């Protein structure tokens, strides 16, 4: 037993130092007035939380909007990522290596550059508009392609789809394929075999995708800033403005509301599916 | 004084001839009562070598705007003093203020700031005022910038002045009818055609000007509310906010933006240089805000001597000239202005950017932090406007 405890010590230390302590500090900040910059002096208060849920409803409104956008982007990642992962898993080992390399290739480039690249693709003088103009399909650039929720979601899908593909692929790899063949032998159509055999077996991968895609999008700042325009403002944009105004207490309260939502989501997912199944054989 | 000068000369010769190391040079200067900045300044004339690293402790940590330095002076400083400079960039004064307040001189030696933020830094005990007479390069400043009243603390100055410019709208005349009031920005025909730098406090101040606030950085709650309503009204016309003003050029060049609502002067030339259209500046009749910025040395800076040497180094006319050629906006260094006036390529630009009219700098509505709870109210109003 002591040996096990020693073994767990590094992990526990990392958890405490990098997760628990910052969360406690953030909670303390959120419950104090910010007369002093560090927010740890002065009176206790829940005013920051009240402000999150009042303030003309803007923070709540933008939080809900952020969640909806994250949900749409996650759903798009799954819809595109699942067939792609399935395709990879069905190819030979050699091709799987090539295709997986292609999936992770975007990570070789800076995240910031990848987001910027989309302004060159979707912009008024971007690749799409120039192509449409060249083909005489349009005579004016389609300005709705960039600086709105649409472009934001497109970029989110592009940025996060590799996580979805990898998680689903890992799940497909572990799937017992003989069950699919058995289902087909017993008269199941391909759709039935997919819905009743493949999908249930790969649900842990789907849930893992949700965790890897949905949660980081909730905290996205760069993408809405660079391609979201005025309609693509998300909760982190408001949060950062508050931090710039030295409103650490209020900023912490907004962050804590998001963190609580994520925590509830994770607990819900954990109750729904055994995520460990994805990685433990 | 003459004796001291003679000794200094012999010390310089000693370093030149290799009889003295730079460490010995600095020690001797200290014994003579010659300040480190002055000694560094002398040493600068020698060029090369890194032996002074022991005398000037580094690395130097500067929290700075990206248009406040260029690679050549960083490289030269390293070559001359052996001190490496770590640069951290920021976009908002409040951001830099918060960082400085959080980590202080342990992690930041020099911080940039705008006009009225200087007194805020000083009142909060974050910076040490500078004796500008200690700096060789301060002699190259326009006299008006050596005597800025709101930066004065006794004989010292909170900041070493660097640059200034009005912040005004620019428009592309191919699409926009000439105008002289902020009201034109609200015209529905400019829907999604305006780009702005994301500076919430300054945007609120600008909206304050639109709605008639007399002191746009000290607005009353009612004035803030009116400014917020103006921003909400303007929102459909704003395509996006950019994080740094140097991003404006591309928006004009690729035709995405028809109006940039808060650029500093010189944008027309930068756009032209980049192959874009000849955009026009507007000096709105309601007035305009402007920036006058500089560098401050953080209190208890871990590398104070290097910080002082750096300020003296970077503010030399030769580097200021390079900076003007790149940024095309007015600076505080008079010697650099005169050098640029001699260059036919830049003589007109010097006048067009107001570089030869330094008195204009102090007639603008200068950027500063709203007092008391004001900052919070400005940001709340900004958030409420953009979140709708």
UniProtKB/TrEMBL annotation, chain A:
One of its GO terms (cellular component) is plasma membrane. Residues 63-269 form the ABC transmembrane type-1 domain. It is a multi-pass membrane protein. InterPro entries: MetI-like, MetI-like_sf. Pfam families: BPD_transp_1. The chain crosses the membrane at residues 7-31, 58-85, 97-122, 142-172, 193-215, 221-241, 248-269. It is found in: Cell membrane. GO terms for biological process: transmembrane transport. CDD domains: TM_PBP2. Keywords: Cell membrane, Membrane, Transmembrane, Transmembrane helix, Transport. SUPFAM superfamilies: MetI-like. Belongs to the binding-protein-dependent transport system permease family. CysTW subfamily. This is ABC transporter permease. The lineage of its organism: Bacteria, Bacillati, Candidatus Sysuimicrobiota, Candidatus Sysuimicrobiia, Candidatus Sysuimicrobiales.
Automatic annotation (TrEMBL), chain B:
Keywords: Periplasm, Signal, Transport. One of its GO terms (cellular component) is periplasmic space. One of its GO terms (biological process) is polyamine transport. InterPro entries: SBP, Sperm_putr-bd, TAT_signal. The keyword GTP-binding does not apply. Its main location: periplasm. PROSITE patterns: TAT (PS51318). GO terms for molecular function: polyamine binding. The keyword Signal applies. This is Extracellular solute-binding protein. The lineage of its organism: Bacteria, Bacillati, Candidatus Sysuimicrobiota, Candidatus Sysuimicrobiia, Candidatus Sysuimicrobiales.
């Amino acid at each position: 037993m002591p040996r096990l405890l020693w073994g767990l010590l590094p992990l526990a230390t990392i958890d405490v130092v990098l997760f628990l302590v910052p969360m406690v500090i953030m909670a303390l900040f959120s419950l104090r007035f910010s007369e002093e910059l560090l927010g740890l002096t002065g009176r206790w208060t829940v005013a920051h939380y009240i402000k999150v849920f009042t303030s003309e409803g803007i923070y709540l409104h933008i939080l809900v909007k952020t969640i909806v956008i994250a949900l749409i982007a996650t759903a798009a990642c799954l819809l595109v990522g699942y067939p792609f992962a399935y395709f990879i898993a069905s190819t030979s080992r050699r091709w799987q290596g090539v295709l997986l390399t292609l999936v992770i290739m975007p990570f070789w480039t800076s995240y910031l550059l990848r987001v910027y690249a989309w302004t060159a693709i979707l912009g008024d003088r971007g690749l799409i508009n120039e192509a449409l103009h060249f083909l005489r399909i349009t005579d004016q650039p389609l300005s709705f392609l960039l600086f709105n929720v649409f472009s934001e979601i497109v970029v989110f899908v592009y940025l996060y789809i590799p996580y979805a593909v990898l998680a689903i692929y890992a799940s497909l790899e572990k799937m017992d394929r003989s069950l699919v063949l058995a289902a087909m032998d017993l008269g199941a159509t391909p759709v039935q075999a997919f819905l009743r055999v493949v999908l249930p077996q790969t649900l842990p991968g789907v849930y893992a995708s949700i965790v890897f895609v949905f949660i980081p999008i909730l905290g996205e700042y760069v993408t809405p800033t660079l391609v979201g325009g005025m309609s693509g403002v998300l909760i982190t944009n408001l949060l950062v403005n508050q931090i710039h105004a030295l409103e650490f207490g209020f900023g912490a309260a907004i962050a804590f509301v998001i963190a609580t939502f994520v925590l509830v989501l994770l607990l819900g997912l954990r109750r729904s599916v055994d995520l460990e199944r994805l990685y433990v054989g | 004084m003459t004796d001291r000068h003679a000794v200094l000369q012999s010390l310089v010769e000693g370093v030149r001839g290799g009889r003295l190391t730079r460490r010995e040079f600095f020690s001797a200067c200290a014994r003579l009562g010659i300040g480190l900045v002055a000694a560094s300044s002398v040493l600068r004339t020698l060029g090369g070598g890194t032996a002074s690293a022991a005398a000037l402790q580094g690395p130097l940590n500067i929290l700075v705007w990206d248009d406040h330095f260029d690679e050549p002076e960083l490289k030269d400083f390293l070559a001359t003093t052996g001190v490496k400079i770590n640069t951290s960039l920021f976009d908002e004064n409040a951001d830099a203020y918060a960082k400085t307040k959080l980590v202080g001189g342990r992690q930041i030696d020099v911080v940039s700031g705008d006009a009225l933020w200087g007194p805020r830094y000083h009142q909060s005990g974050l910076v040490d005022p500078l004796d500008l007479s200690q700096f060789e390069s301060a002699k190259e400043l326009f006299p008006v910038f050596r005597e800025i009243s709101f930066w004065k603390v006794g004989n010292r100055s909170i900041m070493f002045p660097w640059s200034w410019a009005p912040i005004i709208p620019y428009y592309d005349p191919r699409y926009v009818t000439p105008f002289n009031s902020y009201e034109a920005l609200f015209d529905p025909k400019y829907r999604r055609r305006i780009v702005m730098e994301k500076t919430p406090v300054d945007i609120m101040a600008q909206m304050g000007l639109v709605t008639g606030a007399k002191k746009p950085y000290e607005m009353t709650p009612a004035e803030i509310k009116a400014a917020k309503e103006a921003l909400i009204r303007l929102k459909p016309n704003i395509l996006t906010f950019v994080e740094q003003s140097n991003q404006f050029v591309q928006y004009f060049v690729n035709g995405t933006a028809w109006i940039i609502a808060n650029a500093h002067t010189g944008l027309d030339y930068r756009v032209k240089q980049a192959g874009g259209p000849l955009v026009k500046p507007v000096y709105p009749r309601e007035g305009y805000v402007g920036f006058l910025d500089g560098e401050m040395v953080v209190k208890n800076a871990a590398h104070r001597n290097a910080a002082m040497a750096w300020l003296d180094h970077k503010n030399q006319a030769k580097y200021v000239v390079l900076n003007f050629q790149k940024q095309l906006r007015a600076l505080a260094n008079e010697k650099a202005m005169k050098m640029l006036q001699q260059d036919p390529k830049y003589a007109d630009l010097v006048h067009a950017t107001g570089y030869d009219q330094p008195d204009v700098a102090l007639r603008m509505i200068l950027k500063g932090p709203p007092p008391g709870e004001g900052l919070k109210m400005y940001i709340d109003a900004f958030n409420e406007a953009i979140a709708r």
